[in-house]
Write a structure and sequence with these properties.
The chain has about 120 residues and is mainly α. Helices cover about 80% and strands about 0% of the residues.
């Protein structure tokens, strides 16, 4: 699978399923959760960048690969550097323990693909 295909595939699937959830009947709770999520990551006392880095650490500790990819993309859009990402990975592994290592491998691969995609 090419770099663009892995990142693009993730985005296509996420977008399609989010749309499906938002158009499903009896989804008031899901809509409120999505709204709360959007509001949470907006600029406030903490910057958007800081909040995305916190979200990335939490996602890694909770071992949610989809969330990790989402937060990596947001971090990339906000100009987070590889050095910053590596520090976040370190914090996540310290807090979450060695069980987080496989998620770190996949996260690093996804990050590298984001960087490669943006350089082409």
């Amino acid at each position: 699978m090419t770099t663009a295909n892995k990142v693009d595939s993730f985005n296509r699937y996420r977008d399609a399923m989010n749309e499906r959830m938002m158009n499903a009947p009896n989804n008031k709770i899901m809509k409120r959760i999505f709204s709360l999520d959007t509001l949470t990551y907006q600029e406030g006392a903490l910057s958007e960048k800081t909040k995305e880095l916190l979200g990335l650490v939490a996602s890694m500790v909770l071992k949610c690969d989809d969330c990790i990819c989402y937060h990596l993309q947001q971090c990339h859009k906000l100009g987070v550097t590889t050095e910053e990402v590596m520090e976040v990975f370190g914090v996540a592994n310290l807090v979450g323990g060695t069980i987080v290592i496989p998620h770190t491998r996949r996260a690093l691969e996804f990050w590298d693909e984001l960087l490669q995609q943006s350089s082409t």
